[in-house]
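Provenance and format

Records in this collection were gathered into a single text stream. Each protein contributes a sequence line and a token line. The two records reproduced below are adjacent in the stream.
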Amino acid sequence: MQAAVILAAGKGTRMRSELPKVLTPVCGRPMIEYPLDALHFAGIDRIFAIVGYRSEDVQAALAHHSEIEFVLQTEQKGTGHAVRMCVPQLRALLEDSPSEAVPVVIVAGDSPMMQGETIAELLAAWHSAPCACILGTIEVEDPRGLGRILRDENGNFCGIVEEKDATESQRKIHEVNQSYYVFDAAELVDVLDALTPNNAQGEYYITDAPAILLSRGKTVRALPLLRPQEAVSVNTPEELEAAERLMMR
């Protein structure tokens, strides 16, 4: 069993559109269809889509995906809060697989550049050495606006800091988080209760979960597996145009 949680609740204010962000057309397809393609490529059995803003529209647009179970986030309180909405479904997965660890991929639904090969490689890394969490990272020239990967003097992962909460020295880090995670389902359920909104935004961040797991003595690995095109974010109409040009090459 392999499951995934795809975050699809946001409005995407910077896109300057009334559409839910994940339904923004990218080369003629809703943006969320591309990460769904990547999850299918990697052999994901179950997909939980967290919906919120105009949830009925998102569900209608994805009604042909029989493998998706929709989970409603009534208040947008951050990515960690969104994943917490899935706890009943995650517990059910664990009950269905009592004798084996279950990997759960967590990705953002507004990631049209996501590659199935990357998700497959992250899952393969987890299966070869199961652990509490693996996250995919990438080095970028301009890390502005992105969460920075923190490592110790030996190169071991020790946390993620969002730009709004980063110090000046941390903002100089070029290895970033692009929200590609594989969690052990049991560890994920346990750590979600430990998330707190002690940050500049007052939200619950899923990015805090890996560091909390580390503090509990669990193994967390950050692997620089992402491909160059996966560093392309789509948050504005201008970035959308750039992504479409890249996809049509």
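Adjacent record:
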Amino acid sequence: MLASGRIPLALFLTSFSPGGTERQMIELLRRLDRRHFAVHLVCFHRTGEWRARAEELAESVTEFPVGSFRGPAAMRQAAAFARWCRTRNVAIVHTCDLYANIFGLPAAALAGVPVRIANRRELNPDKSAAQIAAQRLGYGFASRIVANSEAALCRLQREGVRAGRVSVIPNGIDLSEFRPEDSGIRNQDSGVTRDTLTADSGIPKPVRRVVTVARFRPEKGLETFIDAARLALAQVPDLEFALAGDGPLSADLESRVRAANLESRVRFLGLREDVAEVLRAHDVFVLPSRSEAFPNAVLEAMATALPIVATRVGGVPELIEHGRSGLLVAPGRAADLAAAIIDLVRRPSYARALGARARADAESRYSFGSMVRRFEQLYLAEAGTSRWLAARAARSSQPLAS
């Protein structure tokens, strides 16, 4: 960094609506070393449930509202963002999602920002060919691209990005918040317990509880989760299934549950702020996704020491080793998903061993501290090789220091 002051850094997000990327970037914002970085937030939409949380942490939050990248309005906003970067002498722009990559990287280059870091945090299962092509063009303006998994790196290579331009920095997890039920540390104020989650359900106790946590979107494969619940309940009647989250498919999923007459056994918990407590109130975690890069939900279940059944897609096999730290099945196969769930509930000692090994992996590889250190090292390395920063240091008669 510059000995004469902190490095001005801009994190660019679409909005502050709850999501995996938003959670990871807000935690990065929270934990970056303020001795080295002055961190600003930039967004298209200053909206979302996590806006206040972000505003408390950033030096500033600035909105550049863009509804479409076509037309003169988008060009005016790009020019405004470039002026904003120049006015604040921004040294690093880090774009955090697809739309920020498309818009922010060329505008930052126009402004002369010396370090432009793109993020690849998904595999684009639901993106159009035009969006994918536009993001590929945006990458051309990046000095570095960060992928959050080897799977995302492979996808970038298939899109023509050289591996040498990419750094892999996996997602992180708060190991103090997401912890096993028997850790001896429990949030007494949350009110979430096994009993409160199943109050008035009419299900006799003891009952084994299976949960998934996701945005209700097509790529999450939640219809497979519901179909697997129906198949598993036919063999193990004392199961209860729960979906925590919300999204555009909420009504469709609720209709699917009603059509299968599963209302008493499949519950919708809504969007939760207390995900850690929800996980601790269940016995098995399931990720039925059709596509994932590096799912936060699996990391959270690992840290909670829950036995996991997940689909073998994207970066999931980088997190879960089949038969050692969880079970993996093919996507879209409800019968296989149900069989794996039944295997875990019928072999509790085996399930506990899988969960314990998953927790150990989370502790050794995926703490937020480790993730933030890697980003800081990347920022400082890129800034240290910047001619612009070197010239600024020379003008102030101050050397660059790492």
